[in-house]
Amino acid sequence: MKAPIQVLLAEDNPDDALLLKEALADTRIDHVLTTVSDGTEVLAYLAGEAPFESTQKPDILFLDLNMPKMGGLDVLQELNKRGVSKIPIVVLTVSNDKEEILQALKLRMNYYIRKPVDDSQLKPLLSLISDMWYPQEAS
Amino acid sequence: MKSNDVYYIFAGNPNTPCLVLEQLARSQNEQIRRRIVENEATELSTLLQMMDDSNPEVRLALASNPKLPLICLQALARDYSEDVRFGIAENANTHLSILWILAEDENPLVATRAKKTLLARGILFN
Question: Which residue in A102, B45, B73, B78 has the most C-beta neighbors within 10 A?
């Protein structure tokens, strides 16, 4: 049996966070969801800094582009500076701005979803992450 | 959204890890396999495994991947599919040595197309 997928969601809007939570639940794929609400928290979480010292490393990061303190693109830029992360990064956006998406792609984004999110997008995505990204962890 | 739609996007993304690309290369879906051979991040070892892909469009796309060694292109220039050979013959970026092979192709359409491409590159025939 596979371990639950550790999902880190960076989203400042509680309604959008709830929608993603429900969409994840609808996939019926076993997961553990942790939510943070701005870019600085994402970086602290990934680095295991306070108050996230004892948290588990995420298997996937859902990253909203528009967040307070530090937006999604800035987070991507910082992650690139810190070294290549193996965690798949899915950008969440309401924007149709191609430049923004291209910029995220250059900053090693793996996938993007236009909000609102629904389970039909998430199910194949989580399956791919579980089966192909971390295949050695399957048993 | 179907799995293949998601897989197709990952197959074409240069940020997708090689390990994932390698697995997607075994997809039953030829469009996904085609995206894999077009992806600049796909490793040579994966590309080589796709030399014998059952789909001619995948093999033709493979011929356009700049990572593919010349010796592999030579093999594709003798592909059993005329569509693959024609596609290579009409590609303005095809190496001259490959175009010379195709200019003598048993299929006159392929041979003529290769000669036209050579002409466009400034190579003249008697």
Answer: B73
Q: What is the pLDDT of residue A137?
A: 60
Q: How do the domains of chain B map onto residue ranges?
A: 1-68, 69-126
How many residues does the structure list for chain B?
Answer: 126
Which candidate in B3, B7, B10 is best for mutational testing of the A interface (most A CBs within 10 A)?
B10
Is the minimum CB–CB distance between A113 and chain B shorter than 8 Å? no
The per-residue pLDDT for A139 is 44
Whether the CB of A120 is below 8 Å from some CB of chain B: the reply is yes
pLDDT surpassing 60 at residue A1: no
Name, in order, each residue with C-beta under 8 angstroms of A17's C-beta and a sequence gap of 6 or more: A9, A11, A35
* Residue A5 vs residue A85, higher pLDDT: A5
Find out whether A34 and A45 touch, Cβ atoms under 8 Å: yes
